[in-house]
Specification:
Blueprint: H1 9-12, E1 28-32, E2 35-36, H2 40-50, E3 55-62, E4 65-72, H3 76-79
Length: 81
């Protein structure tokens, strides 16, 4: 499974990745704090605007439903091994 970084805010929030064995699509982030996300640049911009350490509300498509997930924004470079 393509997964989140272990111990990251995304993992703690329960975000799900793609399962390459079954081809099942994981979570698709469609909005941050109510602002639409159409691509990675949109997502990055929204997270940068919120700022590291802030909590954002993600709207996520999962299994045909849209759910809300709260996640703390982190600097991924600081979490890299």
């Amino acid at each position: 499974m393509i997964r989140t970084i272990p111990g990251s805010p995304a993992e703690r929030a329960g975000l799900q990745g793609v399962d390459p064995k079954s081809g099942t699509l994981g979570d698709v982030i469609v909005a941050v704090n109510g602002n639409a996300v159409h691509n990675v640049a949109d997502l990055t911009d929204q997270l940068e605007q919120a700022g590291v350490g802030k909590t954002v509300e993600l709207s996520v498509k999962r299994g045909g439903k849209t759910i809300s997930v709260n996640m703390q924004v982190a600097d991924v470079a600081r979490q890299a091994p």
